[in-house]
Amino acid sequence: MLRINFTADDIARTRIAAGPDPLWELVLALQMLTPQRGDLLFGGWRREAGDALRRAGLGPWLRLLLALTPNVGYFPDFLNPIDAMRGLEHGLEAIRRTGKPALQRDMRHLARNRRLPARARDIAEGDPGTLTELTDSMRTCHDAVVAPYRHSIETAFERDRAAKANALASSGVEGLLRSLDPLATWSSGELRVPTHRDQELRLDGRGLVLIPSYFCVSGPLTMLDPTLPPVLIYPVARQPDTLPARAVPRPEALCALIGATRTAVLQVISTRPRTTDELAHRVGISPASASEHAAVLRRAGLVTSHRDGHRMQHQPTALGLALLTQTRQTPFSGSPPRRQRLAGPARTVPGSANPGGH
């Protein structure tokens, strides 16, 4: 059982992630390529994902990624840096910046119960070229097996987050933590996850980030290293309208007109108003870049923006929505063009389907 101990400071600092974490979704999606308990809804996705990965032609790099992400037992903390909550590129850069001691510790722990490909030694040594190839392969995998389903992922995420926000508004953080039942139970300053391997996590005033996850089916997960930022990843409910379904590709004509990134911005705000930080997270760009793109769209009459407290909210105008509607497009599902690399941290202990723990 996982026991998470809270102080008063931790309760004050507990929060819900603003959006899906792209690296957690990637790692858990890679695990989903192998059938596991609770994955009955993912049979069609698994066939499509397998075809997409074969077309990607990753070869030994895909075999390495699968070796790093077993769906039973431990998988390395460094694959899930906390900076990925700011966007995929931030997370990939954080992986490339992981220190050699952390890489050696994680890879040594992983190698205790399984044989790893030869390239795993280069990862443990922090070889820059190998880490770059690894993160390039992770980006390719994300584009193949996660990004096409982003509308389903975000719809399920937003529904779960709204329910948690209502619990928080009506009953405070205690209500928020109680809303995790039956996945976890809250009592006397301790959150307990019965399906998890034995582990005790003392927050010590750092608070806890709750991260709803679409591809998580085994039960709540956390990091093995207690010094890393505390997170709890847990499965979202998947309703009939959020089953894994590929989104329609982005409209090429609109991309040619206003650019792929600005098209992505319009798609992200098509479902509801978004703050600049939310835009940045969902499109995978910096907040400064998100603000700049929103300003260009605003001057073109496609977006309106208004200040809500300290945050700027953006939403499409009737003209902006009409452009999207004419292309019969669903909300943003892919990645914008490759950008310069940014920077980024984090990891897991699986639950009942991963009795060995992360």
Question: How would you concisely characterize the structure shown here?
Answer:
This protein is 44% helix and 11% strand. It is an alpha/beta fold and 358 residues long. It folds into 3 domains: 107 residues, no CATH class; 127 residues, no CATH class; 75 residues, Arc Repressor Mutant, subunit A.
Q: How would you explain this protein's 3D organization?
A:
This protein has 358 residues and is of the alpha/beta class. It folds into 3 domains: 2-16 and 151-242, no CATH class; 22-148, no CATH class; 252-326, Arc Repressor Mutant, subunit A. The chain is 44% helix and 11% strand. Strands 3-4-1-5 form a 4-stranded mixed sheet, covered by helices on one side. It has a 3-stranded parallel sheet with strand order 2-6-7. Strands 8-10-9 form a 3-stranded antiparallel sheet. The longest helix is centred in the middle third of the chain and has 29 residues, at 150-178. The two termini are 13 Å apart.
